[in-house]
Amino acid sequence: MRLRLLALLASSLAAGSLAAAALPSCTPDTLTGAPDGGLGGAGGGACTTTDSPCPVTFHLPLTGQKSVELRGDFQPGAWTMGVPMSIDGGEWRTTIGVKNNTPIHYKFFVDGMTWITDPANQASDMAGNSVTTASCPITGGPDCGKPDAGVDAGPPPIIGSYDWRQSVMYFAFIDRFNNGDPSNDAPVSGIEGPANYQGGDYAGLLAKINEGYFDTLGVNTLWLTVPMDNPSVAGAGSDGHPYSAYHGYWPSNLDKVEEHFGTLALLKQLVDAAHKKGIKVLFDYAMNHVHESSPTYKDHPDWFWPLDYNGKYCVCGQGCDWNDSYEQKRCWFTPYLPDWNFTVTEARAFSVSNAVKWITDTGIDGFRLDAVKHIETVWISDLRTRVTTEIEPKSKQHFYMVGETFESGNRDLVRKYVDPSLLDGQFDFPLRAVVVEKLLRRTGSMFDLDGFLASNDGYYPGIMSTFLGNHDIARIINTAMDDPWDAWAAADKGYSNWGKTPQLPTMKSPFERLAVAFTFLLTTKGIPLIYYGDEIGMPGAGDPDNRRFMQWSGYSDNQLFLRGQIEKLGQIRKAHPALWRGTRTTASVTQDTYGYVMTDGTDVVSIALNRGDTTAAVAGMPAKGHDLLTDTDISGPSVTLPPRTAMVLVAK
Ligand SMILES: [Ca+2]
Ligand SMILES: [Ca+2]
Prior knowledge:
By secondary structure, this protein is an alpha+beta fold. It contains 17 helices and 31 strands. The chain folds into 3 domains: about 130 residues, Immunoglobulin-like; about 350 residues, TIM Barrel; about 70 residues, Immunoglobulin-like. The strands form 8 sheets. It has an 8-stranded parallel sheet with strand order 21-20-19-16-11-10-23-22. The chain has a 6-stranded antiparallel sheet with strand order 24-25-26-31-28-29. α1 crosses α12, α8 runs parallel beside α9 and α11 runs antiparallel to α12. The protein is globular. Bound molecules: calcium ion (2 copies). The site of one calcium ion (CA) has 7 residues, from loops.
């Protein structure tokens, strides 16, 4: 992790100095034939203005390079973090949209170390960068290019009146959240409690929506577990315990609702109730595999990869490799989960149609897409095309798709799918890793966090989801303890996912640290995700202990403190657009403190964090400020923070 951070810092410094030298004050408007400018900008009678993006394709012959990035001034920050080029035939290639009739300056950044000009383009500026100007024809009438009412003009493009950047998301893990109908509990025989159905259902979630639980918490977007019918059978887990499909990731009858959760009518009622409250609903959609009991598999075995791959028993992590770029797409997660082969056109069309039908049947607003790197990418682009042509013209809103690529150390792979033709965003695993290390485990210093953010703020061309915990990670309160718990240390102490598992901490400090970390998430861009129960610091080891049933009563004072802080932060975020769409600038950094300012026009909010266990001063804050968390006036510009606290300040 440390090496990775240093490498990123070094590369951004090198590129920064180059960028400064690369921008001449006056540049001749050089139009060259090298990149393929002006392709299809007016295709299909689309409205094209002088401000419309005009597509340009860049090429570089393949001569053994390991990686090539296009860098330049075509978008903010692209001299530091460019656009990765892909191998296509015998060349590296990428297509980007650039401003029409406006010169751009660029270079290719090869193997993460060498800058070269475009060999196919002789035009260059005085600093030695390649220069090109794309030209697309101007079409359309006098209203062409004017945004529809209510559309925010900020990137990325947003359809409709809802700006997804203002979402605060909550993962309601249906079986473990709230039991509103004991008649459908039906645990599967022979399975221990932690791996069995525990009774949560749509009726339970609907009750909490109507009670206003999410409004109070400042949550306006729900992520629900996979709704598709799973079989009521046992399957062997990798830990040797038999499991049920309480998690929803064993889809069988793809067009039916899981009966432990409720009916399609109830699910539709739940979505409608959420919408009445201004709450968006996302389903988890599992498209990598089906359960072997699925009629779809029985009827069409040729739609799935065979378990035998040239004599290899192609279960991921056994005969096939989780990380091999080919095998990871065709391997079976377990011997009872046949893996879709989406290179088969008919199979892909069937599966994409199934996903579209769930949208039209229920009126949901987005998908959380599971295990993205394990499916053929064309499935995602096919779904995006159908959503764009069939769903959005009717809903008049953008359908948000966020993916899961469980990669903390590979930002390029995470970013690969964040593209207008694929996903709007992904869960920001790399950012989570840094935030957990710096704010909860207190390793290194806050300079590390600042250095990471310097490159991460502009890294993804979409709306990412930021988070601390999820259903695949041991509960985050453990990591925030004075003596941070983690999987390997826990094993030393005799803890495991089954048997001896962590209890609710009795001291306040871990709850305070979590409140500081949530302050960071709720005052920076990205859609903050709250994993159910993290708002009250529920403890738990790894899967399945991180999926205990939601606690609804008997809270400790520390739990109420943490939830109260998150409720305040949710309301503050709602009241201050700077926190979700503003620009972040660093105000001050020390070993244990971090100050930054979020700005959106006249909305300016300053945030001070102290992760340390002693009182500390944070510089760069307003001279006369008001702390929205404690509702008190504060004198700056240096403010004093007690141990493990944060301030969210507006100028008075
Ligand atoms: Ca139930
Ligand atoms: Ca697959």
